[in-house]
Amino acid sequence: MKRRILSVIMGGGRGTRLWPLTRLRCKPAVPLGAMYRLVDIPISNCLNSGLNQIYLLTQFNTASLHRHIRESYRFDGFSRGFVELLAAEQTEAGDSWYQGTADAVRQNLVHINPDDDDLVIILSGDQLYRMDYRTIIEQHDKTGAEVTVAATPVDRSLASAFGLMKVADDLSITEFVEKPTEPQVIDDLLLPDQLKATLENPDGDYVLVSMGIYAFSGRAMRRALDSSATDFGKEVIPSFLEGGKLYCHLFEGYWEDIGTVRAFFEANLRLTDTVPPFNFFDPEKPIYTRARYLPAAKVNQCTIDHAILANGCILSTAELHRCVIGVRSNIRDGSRLINTIMMGAERLESDEERLAAEARGMPAMGVGRNCYIENTILDANVRIGDNVRLSPAGKDNGWSHGDVFVRDGVMIVTKNAVIPDGTEL
């Protein structure tokens, strides 16, 4: 029988470091780049790599994610392709939620059901990168590995946030340490000169960090999960160091772990650069998402400098500097947005709905007139009144006022929030 290659995307984490963006949705469902969701990245990488048998493991705040997947990824009956949602469930074998990445896959082995010779690709649901997974598959087969771990070089200063590894000349992994904090341990794992010399920019001190992307043979996966291990990085991968065939796949392209509000904010704004590090405009490798059938954005007498506008937007005499404006956004006369991400609205507001909201003392959906907003994320469906000023300047991390928070130096107006006319925060 032909070997199957199965993709498993981890989508069950709480995303606590991205809170309050994850207050009403799970991390992979957080909007990205004006019209996408984070989960669209690994799914699109799979499809562009010719892999169309995809399992998505979910657990927390799943409604938004499930709806997006259901409306975005439909395959015809002849392709044998699918994106199948596997939510945490109670069974006769147990009623506990996922205790970690490895435990999540273990609980779903009955559904994934890999044969010994199948290949299982484990992927994160919250990273921004492009990878042709066929390259890691080819290396995995060539080395005869049981497990291949995708890794990328990062600056030493970021080492404590990731799993680090040391590799031999043949890229076999000889040491793996999850999120070390001791300087001596990190120093011992610095990239050797001969490997650093192969990098595009060899200057500086680098470490090899795990990208949370693993290729397992079906046999190795079943053996690894026949244990009490709950996490791939902390337990499963180190268990292959003794006697296992554990290899590293070196990736040098752009890769961003969207782990914090600051990382999310900066990754989005970098998309507005003249030549962004992540390119959505590659016709050979499209990023797929939901088809919304919206009208083109309408812009009336605006000043726009480095911005992304999604479909369904209406902007009137506004000023935008380095902004990402999501679907169905409405920005009214005289408003100025600087370094701002606006996630838009889940539906277009009709005139009747707008008048009804105003009768209840609520602003219309979107940004009102003569507002000033900087270094801010406006989550979906916000209603910002006229003459509102929003900025995190001078506010400590953890500051909050109603539905407005400051995290990592970024102000966040949460989903469905209402900000009255004249508010200054």
Structure description:
With 425 residues, the chain is of the alpha/beta class. The chain folds into two domains: 5-270, Spore Coat Polysaccharide Biosynthesis Protein SpsA, Chain A, CATH 3.90.550.10; 298-419, 3 Solenoid (UDP N-Acetylglucosamine Acyltransferase, domain 1), CATH 2.160.10. It contains eleven helices and 27 strands. The protein has helices spanning 40-48, 63-72, 101-107, 109-112, 133-143, 183-188, 193-196, 218-225, 232-239, 261-270, 351-359; strands at 5-11, 31-32, 36-37, 53-58, 82-87, 119-124, 127-129, 147-155, 163-167, 173-178, 206-217, 246-250, 255-257, 298-300, 303-309, 314-316, 319-325, 330-331, 336-342, 366-367, 372-378, 383-384, 389-390, 400-401, 404-407, 410-413, 418-419. Strands 1, 4, 5, 6, 8, 9, 10, 11 and 12 form a nine-stranded mixed beta sheet that branches. Strands 15, 17, 19, 21, 23, 24, 25 and 26 form an eight-stranded mixed beta sheet that branches. Strands 14-16-18 form a three-stranded parallel beta sheet, with no helix packed on it. The longest helix has 11 residues, at 133-143. It is globular and about 70 Å long.
Question: Secondary-structure map with pairings?
Answer:
Layout: E1 5-11, E2 31-32, E3 36-37, H1 40-48, E4 53-58, H2 63-72, E5 82-87, H3 101-107, H4 109-112, E6 119-124, E7 127-129, H5 133-143, E8 147-155, E9 163-167, E10 173-178, H6 183-188, H7 193-196, E11 206-217, H8 218-225, H9 232-239, E12 246-250, E13 255-257, H10 261-270, E14 298-300, E15 303-309, E16 314-316, E17 319-325, E18 330-331, E19 336-342, H11 351-359, E20 366-367, E21 372-378, E22 383-384, E23 389-390, E24 400-401, E25 404-407, E26 410-413, E27 418-419
Parallel strand pairs: 1-4, 1-6, 4-5, 8-12, 14-16, 15-17, 16-18, 17-19, 19-21, 20-22, 21-23, 21-26, 22-27
Antiparallel strand pairs: 2-3, 6-11, 7-13, 8-11, 9-10, 9-11, 24-25, 25-26
